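Figure 2 data, in text form.
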Amino acid sequence: MLDHVLILAEGGSHASEGGVPPILVGGAMFLGLLILLGITYLFSGQNQRPAKTRTGARAHTAQESASTDARRH
């Protein structure tokens, strides 16, 4: 299918009306593929941070007091 598009673009560029230059067709296809790649990346979940694990309130306060004690010394 890509071959057909490029052949049509080249044929159109030699027509008397001017046509579409092949570089424009290639650039538009490249941009389209980059957009599809970006959409795939956004929906793949690779760009999300891992969820923080929830700890109990007691464990959380114990960790905070230990870290503040370490900073004091």
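Caption note: The mean pLDDT is 75.
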